Amino acid sequence: MPVKPYDLPPDFAGAGKAPHKSEAPKVVRRPNRLTSGKASFIVLKAANPLLQYLIFTKGWGHSVYALLGLSAATPHIGMLSSKQKVLVGAALLAAARQIFWSLYINDSPLSPIDAAHIAVYDLVADSSNTLLSLASSGWSLGPYQWFGSAAFLIGSAIETISELQRKWFKAKIQNNGRVNDGGLWRQCRHPNYAGFLLWRAGFAAMTENMWAFWNPGLHLCQFAVSSIPVLERFQQLKYNEEWARYKSGTPYRLIPFIW
């Protein structure tokens, strides 16, 4: 799943039990360097927007519809419409931002298998958006694209800024053993998840096809049922009273004033 970078580190196995008094969950972090995992991640992410462009311009999407016995509502003319430019642009921006994440923000190990897992899933999700957009006859930019673009850009900014704030907070020695409670992390306990969901929902809205919301809907369920509860258990075991203080001052998990 594309949320793999936010999962617990592989050396942590105490989500369901209390550690020994002298034991503390540890996160494996290494200096940023170009590893085989990161290199493969960058190549696969760079290929994503190119694939979306070819699906539109080479008629590959229409061929998929024909194989399924369907007809695309959008004609194939060998070039991008205004709506399709927005979709390809969103895929390009998402890929660039995630490459930046892998090279600068992420300081945890990223194996070639994990890199392929994340990048291939994103490629499937983005290609799904591209194909579903062909079911709409819309050719020019409309309210779905304007609204979706705004949500995409705001969500992208929230996710990246919150990740940077966390990285810079942890880089300061005086913050060892402390919970990051500043910036976007003061508004909710998982702003990176919130930003991820917002830009994914915006990307889906650009297609003008409600079926495209399968992706943000799936991640919302995963975050609510699995990722957030497990991660908060990890934080509780690691920070103890510091985490309790943070939860008291920041009561919202994902959406400020709602949940």
Automatic annotation (TrEMBL):
Pfam families: DUF1295 (PF06966). Gene3D superfamilies: 1.20.120.1630. GO terms for cellular component: membrane. Residues 1-26 are annotated as: Disordered. Transmembrane segments: none annotated. This is Steroid 5-alpha reductase C-terminal domain-containing protein. It comes from Geranomyces variabilis.
